[in-house]
Amino acid sequence: MKATWLLLFALATSPPSDGDGREGNDLFREGRYREAADAYLAALDALGPDAPAEVQASLLNNLGASLYRMEDYETALQAFVRSLSVADTPAGRSRAAYNAGNAAYRQDNLNAALSFFKQALLEDGLNDSARYNFEFVRRRVKDDQPQQQEDSGGKIEPSEYAKALKRQAEELVAKKQYRLAHSLMLDGLRVDDSVRAFQDFIGRTGNIADIDQPQDS
Q1: Which of 38, 65, 81, 168 has its CB surrounded by the most CB atoms within 10 Å?
Q2: CA–CA separation, 120 and 6 (whole Å)
Q3: Is residue 31 part of a domain?
Q4: C-alpha span between 93 and 143 (Å, rounded)
Q5: From CA 96, how far away is CA 61, in angstroms rounded?
Q6: Which backbone phi and psi does 101 adopt, to 5 degrees?
Q7: Which residues contact 183 (CB under 8 A, 6 or more apart)?
Q8: Number of independent structural domains in the chain
Q9: Residue where one domain finishes, among candidates 113, 144, 175
């Protein structure tokens, strides 16, 4: 069944901490996106490469948001990636990665969108918009793939061992023990090759385990 969710396209903008981006912010709020983009570029040129990382990241992020509103998704993605590269706080990196994911999705680059949304969550596990979009895109990728994995032209039929293993893993997932569930399936794969019939489930638990991994301070 095709996913029927709506992707959250609301962009995360953030005014720079000094006055150099105010003109762009005012223009953006008025819907004058081309002029806003020019103002952000002028501010970046005026500040130069020695500007504080937080200011550069905010200007680049808002530049990307302006370009995104103009439906120039390719150039917007470049601005968001630049913002991501210079941001020096988890919140700034999460914001830029989330916006980059939206821009990648608009270009129908689903794998890149997944990667950016995952990075946004790794930086900020409370970024609910990124979590929603990650799940949405993951489901779309699943819908676009064949319903069954194939091996040498035939369907992979899971053994009784593989089915029992998946039931155990699902019980762990229900308890939010994602890493244990993922490890259980990987261990089973070494024992019984037919566990590959549940490759999509293995991939999902692995992604969630990565997202829920505690971050170092």
Answers
A1: 65
A2: 19
A3: yes
A4: 29
A5: 6
A6: -60, -40
A7: none
A8: 2
A9: 144
